[in-house]
Specification:
Blueprint lengths: L11 E7 L9 E2 L4 E9 L6 E8 L3 H4 L7 E8 L2 E7 L8 E11 L4 E9 H5 L8 E5 H11 L19 E5 L5 H8 L20 E6 L2 E6 H6 L4 E4 L20 E5 L2 H7 L3 E8 L4 E8 H4 L22 E7 L16 H18 L2 E8 L9 E5 L1 E2 L2 E5 L4 E14 L2 E10 L7
Parallel strand pairs: 13-19, 15-17
Antiparallel strand pairs: 1-2, 1-5, 3-4, 3-22, 4-8, 5-6, 5-7, 7-8, 9-10, 11-12, 14-18, 15-16, 18-23, 19-22, 20-21, 22-23
C-alpha cells in the first residue's frame, strides 16, 4: 500500500468486459463506455453490489444486445490497495453478472443506462434450494451450503472469515433458498470463543455477508473484539480537505441514529421473556434474557455501555413460539448446546445483540481506501469542543456496516462508510 500517494485520485480501470448472451462467449470491451462506478458491501446483505453508469456511443445496448444475465469481467487498481479489485471468470473466481438495467435514456448520438451487478452465487441463490437434512456444527453447515449449493470457489471461503460455533444444529432445509437458510442460522449461532479461550464464549448473533475477498460468517462479538485496521481524524472543518492526508474525514460526519431507546425496547434489547410450547409433552417452557446479566459475555466496542436503570429490569418484549421437537434429534452432540429450548434462548440473546450493535449509526466520507472491508473495525478521533487536546465521547471504535467505493466522481475517488457501534467512549 502506497500511503504517500493522494488517494482521492489515481484509480485505473484495467478491464470492463461483458459477454452478451447472443455472442457465444466472446467478450465485449466496454472500457470506453464506463462513466462512473460504485461498489457496495454490507454486513446485513449477503451479496456485494456494483453499479456502473454507461454512456454508450456505439449502440451496444440494442445491437448486441446487452441484457440481464450476462457475465462481466471487472478489474480496477488503486494505490490504497496492493491487489486490484478484480472479478473474473475461471477457476477461483466468482464472476459478476448483470442483474438489472435501469435509468435508460437516449438521443440520436448516445444512450446512457445503469448496470447493476452481483456475484454468480447471488444468482445461484434463486435457482437452487436446500431440501435435505443438515446436521453438525453450524459453521460447517454454512460452508457446505456455499460450496455445494451456491458453487462458491474454495478460495472465496477464507478460514479466518468463518468463526466456529459452540453449538450444533440439526434441521431439514424444507426447500428454502440457501441465503434464507444461512440467515436463519445467524441468530442461533454462538461463537466457540472470542479471545481464543473456549470458556469465554460470546453472545448469540452472527452476520453473513460478502466482501471483495469472499464470503464471511462472523460473530458480532469477534468482530467487535478485532483491532482497528485504520484510524481516521476529524479536524476543524474548512472548505476543502487536506489533499495530502488520506486519513482525514472528507466531509462533516452525520450521526443518523444514537441510542434510540424506543427502538431498543421494541426489540427487547434490555430484557426479554421467552415462552415456548412443547407440542409433544404439552408443557410450556419459560426463560428470560437480561442484557444486564449478559454483558459479561459480550465484547463491546468501547467502555461506556448505556443501560437505562428505569427499564433494564422490565420485560419490553415477549417471544411466543413452539419447540421444534420430534422431527430431529433434540441434542445430537450430547452437550446440550443444540436443544431446541436453548436455541430459543440464543435467538432472544442475539436479538438484543443485533439491537445494541446498531445502536449508534454514523455516516462518513473518506479518501478512497480499497483496503477497507465491511465488518472491519475503525478508530475515529473527534476533538472535544471544550478541550481541543481531548477526545469527546463520540470517539472510539466503530464497525464498518456498509461501504461504498465511488470511482469517476469529478471531485475525485471517495469511500462512503456507514459505521455502527454499541457503546460510547468515556471523555478524556
Amino acid at each position: 500500500m502506497n500511503r504517500d500517494v493522494v488517494w482521492t485520485k489515481g484509480h485505473k480501470l484495467k478491464r470492463f468486459d461483458i459477454i452478451p448472451t447472443s455472442r457465444g462467449g466472446d467478450f465485449l470491451n466496454m472500457m470506453g463506455q464506463l462513466n462512473s462506478l460504485k461498489y457496495y458491501e454490507d454486513v446485513i446483505d449477503p451479496s456485494i453490489h456494483v453499479e456502473i453508469v454507461c454512456v454508450d456511443t456505439h449502440g451496444f445496448y440494442n445491437q448486441l444486445p446487452i441484457r440481464s444475465g450476462s457475465p462481466v469481467r471487472l478489474e480496477i487498481t488503486h494505490p490504497s490497495q496492493e491487489k486490484p479489485l478484480k472479478f473474473d471468470l475461471g477457476s477461483g473466481y466468482d464472476p459478476l453478472v448483470i442483474t438489472n438495467i435501469s435509468n435508460h435514456v437516449s438521443d440520436n448520438k448516445r444512450e446512457a443506462y445503469v448496470l447493476t451487478l452481483e456475484t454468480k452465487a447471488a444468482i445461484n441463490n434463486h435457482i437452487t434450494r436446500v431440501w435435505e437434512k443438515k446436521t453438525g456444527p453450524i459453521t460447517s453447515t454454512v460452508k457446505n451450503i456455499l460450496s455445494n449449493k451456491l458453487q462458491v470457489p474454495g478460495n472465496r471461503m477464507i478460514a479466518k472469515n468463518f468463526d466456529s460455533t459452540k453449538n450444533e444444529s440439526e434441521f431439514y432445509g424444507n426447500y428454502r433458498r440457501p441465503f434464507k437458510v444461512i440467515s436463519d442460522l445467524c441468530p442461533k449461532s454462538i461463537p466457540s470463543s472470542v479471545d481464543g479461550n473456549s470458556s469465554s464464549s460470546g453472545s448469540g448473533g452472527f452476520l453473513f455477508f460478502e466482501t471483495q475477498d469472499g464470503w464471511n460468517f462472523r460473530s458480532t462479538d469477534k468482530l467487535f473484539a478485532s483491532d482497528p485496521v485504520e484510524k481516521y481524524l476529524m479536524t476543524a472543518y474548512k472548505k476543502g480537505m487536506d489533499p495530502k492526508n488520506n486519513f482525514m474525514l472528507a466531509s462533516q460526519p452525520v450521526w443518523k441514529e444514537s441510542h434510540d431507546i424506543l427502538k431498543k425496547l421494541r426489540s427487547g434489547a434490555y430484557k426479554t421473556a421467552n415462552w415456548y410450547y412443547d407440542v409433544l409433552t404439552r408443557k410450556v417452557h419459560w426463560s428470560e434474557f437480561s442484557y444486564d446479566k449478559a454483558q459479561k459475555h459480550q465484547e463491546k466496542a468501547n467502555k461506556e455501555a448505556v443501560l437505562p436503570p428505569d427499564y433494564k429490569d422490565s420485560y419490553s418484549r415477549i417471544i411466543l413460539g413452539t419447540i421444534d421437537k420430534g422431527t430431529t434429534t433434540p441434542d445430537p452432540s450430547g452437550s446440550g448446546a443444540s436443544k431446541p429450548q436453548d436455541q430459543a434462548n440464543y435467538q432472544a440473546q442475539s436479538s438484543s445483540r443485533y439491537s445494541s450493535v446498531f445502536g449508534q449509526t454514523l455516516n462518513i466520507t473518506v479518501p478512497m481506501n480499497l483496503s477497507l472491508r465491511a465488518g472491519n473495525m475503525l478508530e475515529l478521533e473527534f476533538p472535544d469542543l471544550n478541550n481541543p487536546r481531548g477526545k469527546n465521547a463520540q470517539s472510539g471504535k466503530y464497525m464498518i456496516a456498509r461501504l461504498a467505493h465511488e470511482f469517476g466522481n469529478p471531485q475525485g475517488d471517495f469511500t462512503g462508510l456507514t459505521l455502527v457501534r454499541d457503546t460510547f467512549q468515556k471523555n478524556k
